[in-house]
Amino acid sequence: MPQSFHPPQRMLLGPGPSDVSPRVLEAMARPTIGHLDPQFVAMMDELKSMLQYALRTKNALTLPVSAPGSAGMETAFVNLVEPGDTVIVCQNGVFGGRMKENVERCGATPAMVEDEWGQPVDPQKLEDALKAHPEARTVAFVQAETSTGAESDTRTLVEIAHRHDCLAIVDAVTALGGTPIETDAWGIDAIYSGSQKCLSCTPGLSPVSFSEAAIARIRARTHKVQSWFLDLNLVMGYWGQGAKRAYHHTAPINALYGLHESLVMLQEEGLENAWARHRSNHIALRDGLEAMGLSFIVATDYRLPQLNAVRVPAGVDEAAVRAALLTDYSIEIGAGLGPLAGQIWRIGLMGYASNPRNVYVLLGALESILAAQGYKLTRGDALAAAQAAHAAQTDAPKAAVND
């Protein structure tokens, strides 16, 4: 006879999902009401407003897609890309490759701008690609590449796209809530994210936002959007403003309660303070790891604070370290993907999980496991370095979010 599932209590320090705040879990347990109930509609309006705050935008078409971040990606592509289009796709990790796949499935041609994994997108390569493809209508790139922990210069890449009369699609799945995003100030045309990273909600929702220029292209399409469910011409009717909504689908009501609560928490903390907290905990983790002799694959200038790609030292069994963390300490970290498989650990400090306690517990556990494998280190150095880093930053984060 099947029994109820009771998951273990984990510390989620991988590439996502991240730890979910108890406030979010409590919100999701509240009574389910109808997806067209006036009270739910009022909550939807609040949620849209808070997403606009988080994304730094006034875009009217800002909403959570009722599916994970991958559906947010697909929403951007199926609505903005038509058969026969040329799309410049920048790839410096796994998720640029998924963009390419979306372009091809839309019947369009991807023109690839490729950079080494662990490097940001090279603006000059994008400029050259756009000169070589004057027919291109769209540029797509990942701001925060989850597979490597590298952050690209979104403002510059969008400016280049616009100079060549292209719309810019930006993947901000790992960025939102953890590192600066300025949708309006940077001129981003379409941006998508996920609920399970730095927003610390459960997986299953994808915040998206589209500019007026993007909406104009959607309305001017000569082919139907290939996905009925993700067709924004239809979804706009449900996520419009005010009490009158056109039924499109039954929204994931309780999941939206959770996202609403996570965005309330983000506003309570303040967006800039959230960015500073992620930066502060990253610096403490960095100093602790370096005290153990470990290093990062991404250079400091474009290293994400919320996703740390750490080199596995010679002679260390990377999979055994991850297994020991999970089995002995109930801590989850991530493995490398693609060409980085077996070479790195991906350590996430996202949202609710980005706090000093998690940094210290992880460092202590890593010291024990690495020492047991024969790796040479001095026990206690990592914790001391992390604590010193936090102490040194007590008054610094608000003034140095982007350092």
Automatic annotation (TrEMBL):
Pfam families: Aminotran_5. Coiled coil: none annotated. The modification N6-(pyridoxal phosphate)lysine is found at K197. Its cofactor is pyridoxal 5'-phosphate. Transmembrane segments: none annotated. Residues 32-336 form the Aminotransferase class V domain. GO terms for biological process: glycine biosynthetic process, by transamination of glyoxylate. GO terms for molecular function: alanine-glyoxylate transaminase activity; L-serine-pyruvate transaminase activity. Belongs to the class-V pyridoxal-phosphate-dependent aminotransferase family. This is Alanine--glyoxylate aminotransferase. It comes from Acidihalobacter ferrooxydans.
